[in-house]
UniProtKB/TrEMBL annotation, chain A:
Lineage top rank: taxon: Bacteria
Keywords: Membrane, Transmembrane, Transmembrane helix
Name this polypeptide is given: FHA domain-containing protein
One Pfam family, short name: FHA
Species this protein is from: Caloramator fervidus
Transmembrane segments: 6-28
PROSITE patterns in the cross-refs: FHA_DOMAIN (PS50006)
Record domain FHA: where: 65-114
InterPro entries named in the record: Cell_Proc_Reg/RNA_Proc, FHA_dom, SMAD_FHA_dom_sf
TrEMBL record, chain B:
Keywords: Cell cycle, Cell division, Cell shape, Membrane, Transmembrane, Transmembrane helix
Mode of membrane association: Multi-pass membrane protein
Bilayer-spanning residue ranges: 7-26, 32-50, 62-81, 87-107, 119-138, 144-166, 186-214, 220-241, 262-286, 306-326, 338-360, 372-390
Keyword Cell division applies: yes
A single MF term (Gene Ontology): lipid-linked peptidoglycan transporter activity
Full protein name: Cell division protein FtsW, lipid II flippase
GO CC term, one of those recorded: plasma membrane
Localization annotation: Membrane
Main location, first listed in the record: membrane
Length: 137, 401
């Protein structure tokens, strides 16, 4: 029994160094700037709009995207039913969220008015004022 | 990438099981208990990894992977030394991982803590003075608080509080006057440590302060004046305090009194030497003759049974962990989180340096724990708390990448 253990002890040390070597290798790749995993991206497709002007347009969401009537928003909707700063979309941990910024007429996800923050999935329909969007991945 | 991580984790699980196999082989008979113990620890690791991967795919997972690998070294060694303690340590490990996950889920964005820096400074001092009033002397240092059967080392928690305090004030430093003003809590803490005879923590606090000051201000002058003060303070305490003098004399020549004051360090050196290059093998040596082998001297036990190669492997793992922490600091988005990350990295670095340097007689020995390896609840929990905070910073930092 002890003889096997004596041999195994060398094996363990070799294995420990192997693991260290593998960790170092990955860190080296990281230093060289190999981007291993891309950030997940989401997009919004315009499904319905009062004037049908922007129907089918795509909006890419990188990190944060705000929607409202004020011109400093990322998406500006000139619609009286939309509040000045209406809602905010953001990506966190590869998941898309929508946050209602206390708008007057509310933000609806699949027909239900949301109170604050809501997680979104592909295919969800979001209504803001008279405009509706569909979530794409 | 995820595949690589998983296969590295699998390698680690394999190594753990192999270590427990060696342990039971050495004892002559094939036992089942070591395997149950090993499996439990592996399940804990796998559970923690699963939660991180599922809910926080953007965080730096290597902080976790390297930490738990280091923990396993400690668990195997403790199991070999003292089964009762090993069981307790496994419970502490479980609590540590739970706390780590809680921090990821519940802890607010680090930036919000910025406002409370004065609170952190005051609480830090309160924690440190508590043992002077309530505590009792254990193993020559008065830095423990006892509540019922649990004893707790407030200096562990105080380190984290001090990092939060320093991260906020260091950014405000403009000239020498500011340095003096903001370093008052640090100087007080170090003075308390010297009174409590906890010299290792004093050295660590000083080292952390210098590292953060340099990163935060990038002025060499502050560091040089700090070092001059350190030398003066060290000389002063050598002359005034008996326990400091004794420590230094033991360090200079432990063999003079090898059955008395120098007993610990002599046994530690003998153990390290008898390990040789490849070690005596688990359960093949006699590390149990070293006093305090499960806490302060666990590195000597590892050096004896895993050999020089095993001990160096452990040090490389610490190096990689600290590199990974500094990388988190580099990628952090604002100065406050960056300084917190640097503070935690230097905390680990100095802690490893002080204790490994101490047991190998490179610097005077002062009893502090080897992070993640030594037996002890407060140390294990605080280390996982620190890793959790860094993980949180790396999550925020990575979102931009």
């Amino acid at each position: 029994m002890k003889e096997i253990a004596m041999i195994l002890r060398f094996v363990v040390i070799a294995l420990i160094y192997l693991v260290i070597f593998r960790i170092i290798k990955i860190m080296y790749m990281d230093l060289k700037g190999v981007r291993v995993k891309k950030l997940k991206e989401f997009a919004l497709e315009v499904k319905g709009a009062p004037k049908d002007a922007n129907l089918g347009s795509l909006y890419l969401i990188h990190k944060v995207m705000t929607i409202g009537r004020n011109p400093d928003n990322d998406i500006v909707i000139k619609d009286p039913y939309v509040s000045g700063n209406h809602a905010r979309f953001y990506v966190k941990n590869d998941k898309l969220f929508v946050e209602d910024l206390n708008s007057t007429n509310g933000t609806f996800v699949n027909g239900k008015r949301i109170s604050k923050v809501e997680k979104l999935q592909e295919g969800d329909i979001i209504e803001i004022g008279r405009v509706s969007f569909k979530v794409l991945e | 990438m995820e595949k690589l991580e998983k296969s590295i984790l699998k390698n680690i699980y394999f190594i753990v099981m192999l270590l427990f196999l060696i342990l039971s082989l050495y004892r002559g008979s094939f036992e089942i208990v070591p395997f149950v113990y090993g499996t439990l620890s592996v399940i804990l690791i796998a559970y923690g990894y699963f939660v991180i991967k599922k809910y926080y795919p953007r965080v730096d997972k290597y902080l976790y992977i390297i930490s738990v690998f280091i923990v396993e070294f400690g668990l195997v060694m403790l199991y070999r030394l003292d089964f009762q303690r090993a069981l307790k340590q496994l419970i502490w490990f479980a609590i540590g991982i739970m706390l780590f996950i809680f921090i990821l889920i519940l802890f607010p964005d680090i930036k919000r803590l910025q406002k409370y820096s004065m609170f952190f400074a005051i609480f830090n001092l309160v924690l440190l003075t508590m043992p002077l009033l309530l505590g009792r002397e254990i193993k020559g240092s008065k830095n423990w608080i006892q509540v019922g059967s649990l004893s707790f080392q407030p200096s562990e928690l105080a380190k984290i509080f001090m990092i939060f305090y320093l991260s906020d004030v260091i950014r405000k430093i403009k000239d020498y006057k500011d340095v003096l003003k903001y370093s008052i809590p640090i100087v007080l803490s170090i003075a308390i440590f010297v009174l409590e005879k906890d010299l290792g923590s004093a050295l660590m606090f000083f080292g952390m302060f210098m590292a953060m000051l340099y990163v935060g201000t990038s002025r060499l002058r502050y560091i040089l004046s700090g070092l001059v003060l350190f030398v003066l303070g060290g000389f002063f305490s050598y002359v005034v305090f008996d326990h400091v003098k004794r420590r230094i004399n033991i360090w200079l020549n432990p063999w003079k009194d090898k059955y008395g004051a120098g007993y610990q360090i002599c046994q530690s050196l003998i153990a390290i030497a008898s390990g040789g290059l490849f070690g005596t093998g688990l359960a093949g040596g006699h590390p149990e003759v070293i006093p305090e082998v499960h806490t302060d001297f666990i590195f000597s036990a590892i050096a004896e049974e895993f050999g020089l190669l095993g001990a160096i492997a452990l040090l490389i793992l610490y190096l990689l962990l600290i590199y990974r922490m500094l990388r988190t600091a580099l990628y952090a988005k604002e100065d406050y989180s960056r300084l917190v990350a640097v503070g935690i990295a230097s905390m680990f670095a100095f802690q490893v340096f002080v204790i490994v340097g101490g047991v190998t007689k490179m610097i005077p020995l002062t009893g502090i724990t080897l992070p993640f390896v030594s037996y002890g609840g407060s140390s294990m929990i605080i280390n996982f708390l620190a890793i959790g905070i860094l993980q949180k910073i790396s999550e925020v930092g990575n979102e931009d990448a």
